[in-house]
Write a structure and sequence with these properties.
Strand content: 15-25%
Radius of gyration: 49 Å
Order of helices and strands: HHHHEEEEEE
Oligomer: single chain
Shape: rod-shaped
Helix content: 55-70%
Number of helices: 4
Largest sheet: 3 strands, antiparallel
Strand order of the largest sheet: 1-4-5
Structural class: alpha+beta
Amino acid sequence: MAEEEVKKEVTEEAVTEEAVAEETVTQEAEEEKVQESKDKKKTSKKKPKKDKRDEQIADLNDRLMRNLAEFENFRNRSEKEKAQMFDMGAKTVVEKILPVVDNLERGFDGLSQEEKESPFVKGIEAVYKQMMTALDEIGVKPIEALGQEFDPNLHNAVMHDEDDSEAVNVVSEEFQKGYTYKEDVVRHSMVKVLN
């Protein structure tokens, strides 16, 4: 009997061990299912992981776009600076030509009526008119001064005169013509102003 009891105990222990093993396997399976469902929830909430190459491509595209925009800004700025430099150069040339124009005008004012009829003076007048036409075509215009209201942006008052008959702050005499180049003053008119 003792042998039967031992067999019975061994059998019971084996059955118990099998039951425990099955229970453990079942618990592990359930834990795995719970873990899988948690993982699925986490992966569904997370954004899909980008590949390093995709990130590099996006970074390079961003850099390329920024470089293109910077180059476009540089090109626009260069063109604007080039135009400004051209205008400055043209303005300098006009400033150098204006004394020649002044001297021609003074020469014409000093001529008598007989001298004005000579072929030489007529030839010089034709050259003067041609020069004034060329200056006008490039944007050089004389500033109107006589009879105009004094404007410190256009006129340089070198004398004042008191006169009650005329309006106040009006240019009464022009000593030297002023000129503008594309709306910028190249030289102010030298004038006498009534107060």
